[in-house]
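Format is chain and fold; as here:
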Amino acid sequence: MATTGTFIVDPNLATYTEEAAERAGLDPKAIESDHIVSIRRSVGFILSRWSNLGFRQWTFSQNVHTIATVGENVFDLPEGAIDVQMVVLRRNGVDTQMYPISREDYTLLHDKNLTGRPDRYFIDRRRDTPGDSIPIQMFYWLAGENTTDQIISDVYFQIEDGGNAQNTLDVPFRFQEAFVCELAARIAQKFKPERYQGLRMEAEQCFLEAKDEDRDSAPLVISASYDRFYGRR
């Protein structure tokens, strides 16, 4: 028999909810409006927690910012941004790595308006409320000395919310089982506490399996260099 040749595994939130409820021992036919409100609340907290458990590969997006004016030293990151992992300055098609510094180090810079080639940055991680008038910002130094340099950053975004029951989740297929297991555990914690411990252990194992797979596949290379010392006569 021929295989389907397709890879469509993209359940909506209603399907996740039914599967998780069944695993928790809650009959989907018995789910009422109060259950739905509670489950949707749990979905939001799950996705929020996952953003704190290390970088998730699918939530990265490259952001390109062209310095707008000479002397510029700060710009807004896109809505939903949490942090950045890697930043380079692109000048005349050549990229040069920029280095992160702490809030204290940035504060101690003697002249934040000094212009030159930017080589370091500080991420001001504010409350990051969606729609906030003051978004997360990147402060950099030296301040821009032209309007052609670009600051390229790999931005780490918050996982999108679940929305209504017909929405698909902002979760790739390799994390779908982990999400169902986690949601089942939280449903059991609220409505079937006698099944919670077993489902909690399963949820933790499923997440670890998905997290181990959700990695950069490039090999880790560690090298060392040294200069041989010759004594002087």
User: Anything to note?
Assistant: Residues 33-50 form the longest helix (18 residues). Residues 229-233 have pLDDT under 50 and may be disordered. Helices lie at 13-24, 33-50, 103-107, 176-191, 196-213. Strands lie at 60-66, 74-76, 81-91, 94-100, 115-116, 120-124, 137-141, 143-144, 150-157.
